[in-house]
Amino acid sequence: MSSAAPRLAATKPDRIDPITVSVIQGALENIAIEMGYKLMRMSYSSIIRESEDFGAALIDAEGRGLAESAQSTPLQSGPIPGYIKGVLRLFGERGEKIRPGDVIMHNDAYSGASHGPDVAFIVPVFVGERLMGFAATTAHHLDIGALSPGSCGIVEALDAYAEGLQFKAIKVYDRGIRNDAVWQIVRDNIRASDLVVGDMDAQVAAARIGAERMVELIQHYGVETFDTACAALMDHAERLMRQAIGKLPDGVYTAATAIDGYLDSDDPAKKELPLVVTITKQGEEMTVDLTGTAPQVADRPINMPLEGTVDIAIWLTIRSILLDTAVHGHIPVNAGLVRPIRIVAPKGCLANPEFPAPTIARFCPGNQLADTVMKALAQAMPTNVSAGIGNLKVIAFSGLKDGTHWVHMEIFEGSYGGRYGKDGMDAVDTLYANTRNNPIEDIETHLPLRVLRYELREDVAGAGQWRGGLGSVREFAFLTDGGASVEGEGHRYRPWGFRGGQEGQPAKLDLLSNGRPARALPSKVPHMTVPAGGRFVCYGPAGGGYGDPLTRDPADVLDDVLDGLISAATAQHDYGVVIAPGGVLDIAATTALRARRKMPPAT
To answer: Does residue 482 surpass a pLDDT of 90?
Structure first.
């Protein structure tokens, strides 16, 4: 990183022209995007290279987000300002200083991090002797040294210490000198260490690239102009959000959903747990209150860190609904967007746990929380939301080959509910996830696994004027003895329908082994051994429907039948659409059937 003195402006400008602000904003965004692409190309594991489960961002010296990598998942890039604030707090408590050449590793879920496997590598940005900000990358790592292989599916952790290694603002490079002892501790305490440490090295390199680019940008414009531009671009984002909030009617909007928890548990405090969201909108500000949400589960890792998971679920959902890029065009993502939004979460609830409550499996509950926020906002903006989403599932496959661990994390897609004017999206990661699937070719090339099926799940979508999206069916077979653990949601509760739309269908998971009948598994399964030939069949959930199914265009229903997405019997039962033999729409019979369905019941 260059340490040349900046070109200083003669005086600190009180105002700055919008073109310069826009150029600096675009430069910051492009730096973050470059960091993301460099990380993808240098990484070893498919969870980063293919699934894009990583983040990259530029942050100012106070921990305020300036720009984030647009191609990464919001649950990775979004928490990075929280990581920085956590590091600054810990350094302050310990009396440590941040210096040029430092690289800081951090994954403390109670100091801004999303959860333990999402490790950040942070490079401070100095211009001369002044700390200007930070360039940081995060990534989900294949293993973090927890009680069982893989960093997902750790669903029986009793506390934070059972979830793997905790890195609380640790310098892995101190003034440019590599701290070999820390790196050796990492290698000695994680599985698949070559892959994981290789990914970590890629993160460091990508963050350093971002820091170098940020220095060049500051030196080009001067410190004062850069500072003024950063303040202006955050103020601009705040104005956009305030204007969007201001258009909503003042009021209180409440919604509730629930998560599975541990459906096979005998303890009622561990299953069927409510999430409650109350949004109070007044003027240009909004308060999101989670009072009524279930208490934390002290000895199971489905608790959600308030900073790093809960805040991101809330901010991302509000931003997506109020400032949809399809309507508003490009929206700058920085700290200004969240200024008008206040979050209230009672201490000790699922959404604001107390240390050392475990949090490693916070992913699916957090996604359900985002869905609950959307359900509440649907009352104020009914044409800007989807019906209920089908939640996600992650399976950590693992095994030993020649004495070396192999680990693979497979993110199984969910689906969106129907939207105003559009059907729900099929077989995609939902809300704050935004990761991609792993190509079958990549899986079968590198791992002792075979993908026997990958197709859409038929005849399950929530019926509506615009139907819910379809989940996928994906079947994995083990070629050698191995094991797996499962972290998921959505087996108990059906995605909600909206405005007369029907509910979607929940997910399910079957295990076939040793020629025995299929064994249905719950949404959370601790690590189990699986013999060669064992198969997991994962059925993705289907989103809820939007609008009265009897108002769906019969031609669209026919298309779904001809595409094999629904049967002719479902078309008639759910939509009142009659398909004659040969796949022909019977318009007269459809009109008559729908008319009978809409008639009020006889008194």
So the answer is: yes
Q: Is 567 exposed, middle or buried (0-12, 13-18, 19+ CB in 10 A)?
A: middle
Q: In a 3-state reduction of DSSP, which class is residue 169?
A: coil
Q: Report DSSP state, residue 62.
A: T
484-500 average pLDDT score: 97
**For 251-277, what is each residue's pLDDT tens digit?**
999 999 999 999 999 999 999 999 999
Locate 412 and state its tokens.
């199984």
pLDDT at 556: 98
84-134 pLDDT per residue, tens: 999 999 999 999 999 999 999 999 999 999 999 999 999 999 999 999 999
Distance CA 26, CA 397 (A): 40
Place of tokens 């008194």: 603
Question: How far is 166 from 25, CA to CA, in rounded Å?
Answer: 34
Tokens 């290694």 correspond to what residue?
Answer: 165
Task: Let me know: does 322 contact 376? Beta carbons within 8 Å.
Answer: no
Q: How far, in Å, CA of 337 to CA of 334, rounded?
A: 6
DSSP of 274-340: EEEEEEEEETTEEEEE-TTPPBP-TTSTT---IIIIIHHHHHHHHHHHHT-HHHH-----SGGGGTT
Which tokens in the block code for residue 340?
A: 């008008």
Given a cut of 50, whether residue 8 has pLDDT beyond it is no
Amino acid identity, residue 404? T
For the chain, percent of residues with pLDDT exceeding 90: 92
Report how far residue 597's alpha carbon sits from residue 550's, in angstroms, rounded to the nearest whole number: 8
pLDDT of residue 264: 95
Mean pLDDT, residues 332-355 taken together: 98
Residue 291: count other Cβ atoms within 10 Å of its Cβ. Answer: 12
Residues 356/321, Cβ–Cβ less than 8 Å:
no
Length of the chain: 603
Specify the pLDDT at position 10. 35
Angle (nearest 5°) at CA 73 between 71 and 77: 90
CA distances from 23 to 9, 59, 226, 285 (A): 18, 17, 11, 29
Helix 18-42 to helix 193-221 angle (10° resolution) is: 160
Write the single-letter amino acid at 102. D
Collapsing DSSP to helix, strand or coil, 396 comes out as strand
Three-state DSSP at 373 gives helix
Q: Quickly state the pLDDT bin for 603 (edges 50, 70, 90).
A: low
For residue 313, count CB atoms less than 10 angstroms from its CB and return exposed for 0-12, middle for 13-18, buried for 19 or more: buried
What span, in angstroms and rounded, lies between the C-alpha atoms of 207 and 105? 12
Query: What's the N-to-C CA distance of the chain in angstroms?
Result: 81
CA 121, CA 135: separation in Å to the nearest integer?
Answer: 9
pLDDT at 599: 73
Torsion sign, CA atoms 483, 489, 494, 500: negative
Buried b or exposed e, range 81-104, using 16+ CB within 10 angstroms: bbbbbbbbebeeeeeeebebbbbb
Alpha carbon 176 to its chain's center: 33
With vertex at residue 568, the alpha carbon angle to CA 422 and CA 429, rounded to the nearest 5 degrees, is 35
